[in-house]
Write a structure and sequence with these properties.
The protein is of the alpha/beta class and about 775 residues long. The chain is built from 18 helices and 34 strands. The radius of gyration is 29 Å and the shape is globular.
Amino acid sequence: MTIKTLVIALLALAGLASCGTHGPEGTAPKAPVQLIPMPARLTESADSFLLDKQTVLVAATPADRKTAELFNEWFKSLAGFELKMQDSGSMNAIVFRTRPAAEKAIAEAYRLKVGKDVVTIDGDDEAGTFYGMQTLIQLLPVQSATAYWLPGVDISDQPRFAYRGLHLDVSRHFFPVSFVKKYIDLLAMHKMNTFHWHLTDDQGWRIEIKRYPKLQEIASRRKETLDGRLEDNKFDGKPYGGFYTQEDIKDVVQYATDRHVTVIPEIEMPGHALAALAAYPSLGCTGGPYSVGTKWGVFDDVFCAGNDSTFLFLQNVLEEVMILFPSKYIHIGGDECPKVRWDKCPKCQARMKANGLKDGHALQSYFIQRMEKWLNEKGRQIIGWDEILEGGLAPNATVMSWRGMEGGITAAKQHHDVIMTPGNFVYFDYYQSLGKNEPLAIGGLTPVSKVYSFEPVPEGLSSTEAAYIKGAQANLWTEYIGSPEHAEYMVYPRAVALAEVLWSPKNKKDYDGFLERLKRHLPRLDKKAVNYAKHVFEVRGSVENAGKNGVQVKLDSKLDGGKIVFTTDSSAPDAASTPYTGPIPVTKTETIRATVLQDGKPYGNDWQQSFVFHKAMGKTVTLAKTPHQNYNPGPFALVNGIEGVTSFTDNQWTGYSGGTMEAVVDLGDSTDIAVVGLNYLANREQWIYPPKEIVISVSEDGKHYKEVMQRKDPGGTGIIHIRERLQEVKGRYVKFTLRALNKIPDGAPGEGQAAWLFVDELIVQ
C-alpha cells in the first residue's frame, strides 16, 4: 500500500468509526483536523456538521457568491454533484459573509465556525472569506461520497505577512496559459497571494507589445537551447519560442483576481536584455548584431544607459504592461548587470559626466531611479532585485533580497519595504534531494526541512526596521526545467512549507507536526494532479560530529510504519540488510546506503554517502575568516569525510569571494603525519578559480608553525586533489592557507570580479 492510499484508507476508517451510527448518512467519512497553513487560533468542539445533497451554499454579494462558486467547483470534483446556492439560509447551510468595507477589518482575516446546523465563514474582507473557504476545503476528506462530516471547529485566522509569493520564470522555458492558471490556483489554495511573472530575459521575451512587433517576431524565439550543464556547452539544435498575447495575459490576470492573487509582471532592465536587443539592436551600446541567448548565465550586452531611445522604448513597453496588469508594483529586475559595455560606450560615458556619476554602479542607480520616477508619476511603484541598492537606492523602491538576507537588512535599515527571497532558502530550482535519480538542477540543496526553517525577519533589526519586511517569496528559475510536470516536482511540497512559514504565527512552527499534517494534505495535491516530490518521506541521513569518535551517520524517516535498513559496502539495501537501531560510526573509507521499507519493499530513493577516512575527520576546525554566507556549510564540512561534487550542489564546499582562507585543524593530540592535502574546485564558467597559492603548516602548540608544503598557481579544472607526502613530521595543529585569485582576467566570464575559491575536505593522514 502506498502512503497515499494508506492515508485515504485511514481517513475513511476514521469517519466510519466516529460517525457510523448517525442516520441514513452514517457511512459519511470524516477527516481529522489537519490544516496547512496552521491557523492562528483553532478550537475543536464535539459538534459535527453533516454536508449532504440537501446542504445549501449561502452568499448574498457577488464577491461572496464567487467564493462559494469556487468551493462548489472543488466540491463537485470530489463528490460528483454540486450544492444549491441561495441568498439566505441558516439551517443545513454553509454561509459566506464578508464584512462591509466601511467596518474596521484586518486584511485577509477570517473566522470559520462549524456547528451542528450551520457552517459560517466571516471574512474581514473578500480575501479573508476566500481563505476561510480554502480552510473549509481542508476539513473535507479527499474521497468520493454522497455525504461528509465536517468536524466542529472555531477558527480565527489571519496571515503573519502581507506578501506571500511564488515566482515563475517563463523566459528560459515557456509554459502554456493552462499551466500558469494551475500554478496560480495552487498558490491560492495555500493562502499565498502574489504571483511574480518573470516575462523577459536574455533567452526570450514572452509578452506581446503591440507597439514593438519584433519582440514577438524575433525576441520570443531562439535558434536552440543549451542541452545539459552549462559547462558542457552542448546544444539541442532545435528552435524554441513562445509568447503570451495580450488576451492571454488578461485571461490570466482575471483568473488570478478571482482567487485574490496579485500578478506582478517583471520586465528586466537594464541587464538581462539580450532578447530585446536582438529585436531592436539600436538599444544596445554596440548596435549589434545580437542574438537571443541560447545558453544560461549573464551576458555583457545590456540596454544602453546613455541612449534616450532606450528609456523611451521601456516607457512605451511599460505603458502597455500597466494596462494589462493593475498591480501596484512593476518589477524591473535590476540584477546582474555587467558594466563592461557602459565602460566603453561614448554615450554612457557622456551620461555619467553630465550627471556627475562616478562609476557604472552610479549609472545603474541613475537608470533605475529614472524609470522609477516615471512609474511613480503613473501611480505605480517598482520592485527590484537587491542589486538596485548599488550606487544608491531609488527613493520609493521595494527591494527583493535574493543574494542572502543582507540586501534586505540594508534596505530595511534605510526604511524601504523588503521582500525576502534568499537563494539558500527559497530558490526552488535548487536540488531538493541528493538522490541519484534527481533531474538536473542548477545547483544548491534546499530540502523541505530547510524551506520550513526559513525565518524572513532577520535578527538584529529593531521593531521599526522589522516592520519593513513585508513578506517573502520562492523563485522558480527554469533554465533546467522544461515542462509543467518538472516545474510542479520542483515547487511542491516545498511551496506548502513556505506557505506555512508566511501565514502561521512564528511560535506555531513545528516541522514534525507539519510533516504529519502534510501526509493528510498530499491527497489534495493528488486531486489536483500535481506531480509533487515525495522526498520528505524517504529515508533521511545526517552526518554528525561524534566527538573524539570522529563521524557518525543518523538515519530517519517519517513514513508511517516504515523500517530503515542499511549497508556499508555500497550495495543496494533490501529487506535482508541490517536494520537501523542507532547512529552508524564511520570507521573506514566506505559507502553507507540506506532505505526505508514499506510492506517489505523500498519506498522512494535510497540515501547514500561515501566517506574518505583520515585522521582529521570530526576534529575541531577554526576559520580565521567567515566564508561567504551562500557557501558556508560550517567548519565541520571541511573534515566530515565527504568530498564535494563537481556541480557544488551538496552543501559541502566552503566558499570565499576573493581574499585568503585560513583553517586550523586541531587533531587533539600530537601525532605522526604522513600526508596532508585538500580538495579545491575550478570551474571558470562559474567564476570559480584555483587558488593562487596553497601553504600547509604544522605546529605542536598552535603558535609556532613549520611550513611543510607550498604550491603556487596549482591550476587545473574540475575537482583537484592535492596530496603531499611528508617525512618524519609530527604535530597537533595543521594550518591550511589558501590565497584566492582576487580579480578574474579580462575576457573571461565575470571579468574584473573577485574570483570564487571553493575548498572542501582538509586531509591529514
